[in-house]
Amino acid sequence: MSENHVSFLRKVFLSADVYAVCLQHALSTEKEEVMGLLIGELDRENASSHISACVILHRSDKQPDRVEISPEQLCEAAIYAEELKQKLNRPMRVLGWYHSHPHITVWPSHVDLRTQSQYQIMEPLFVGLIFSVFSSDSGSTYNKVDLTCFQARGNSDDNMHRREIAIAIRPSCLHEYNLKALMDLPNILMKEVLSVSHEINYGTDEFAKLHNSALKALQLTEVASSVTLPMCDLLQMRLNSVTARIKEVQMIRDKLKEQVEAMSR
Ligand SMILES: [Zn+2]
């Protein structure tokens, strides 16, 4: 396929609150890849994409390197985008997807590129983001996070390549709809644990039943301790800093008022 100026993206603008939600989601598990869909506005004239909301997806297939989005999930995300469009009066639509690479490099696999190219058939400006998490440089104890923004180029499996797209993270406040997406994360993770345990047929093996019930309790506790509690701490910290900032701004306002009054006397 020939490439003209509108057949691929030039730049992606990602709002900081969506980045925070995606990263929190990516950091929620180091065992499997997690994924979600990105919502925002497309600027076809400049071939750029403005991402300002997202949908965290429930994982039904927990095989490694299996990041498939079902048509139902795509449809639900499209309905959510439509709701946001009405609410914000902006042309919001599903314009990309993200997934995590725990303990592996950030670069898209062949499966990722094939999935991405399928989305590009429907929307040439569709974009993919990958968050590489839980990897560290040798000799460092820091948890390294890498982010890549890509599209697929080439039309067959043999010559499929990634095209790196420039990405800029835009400062933003934590919008109510993105806060809700963040708050839904523990519920989605708990649903995943419960759906796996419901699928198992124990038959008459009481020991297996007991073992799996204990495992389920352990996994639910893990969600609470590694996702819910840190998230509560983070939101409390954010609340404290916002409250302190409001006080600062109020003091500045009072001082300015005093100055204006003094000048008008
Ligand atoms: Zn991948």
UniProtKB/TrEMBL annotation:
InterPro entries: BRCC36_C, JAMM/MPN+_dom, JAMM_MPN+_peptidase_M67A, MPN. Pfam families: BRCC36_C (PF18110), JAB (PF01398). One of its GO terms (molecular function) is metallopeptidase activity. Residues 12-156 form the MPN domain. PANTHER family: EUKARYOTIC TRANSLATION INITIATION FACTOR 3 -RELATED. This is MPN domain-containing protein. The lineage of its organism: Eukaryota, Metazoa, Ecdysozoa, Arthropoda, Hexapoda.
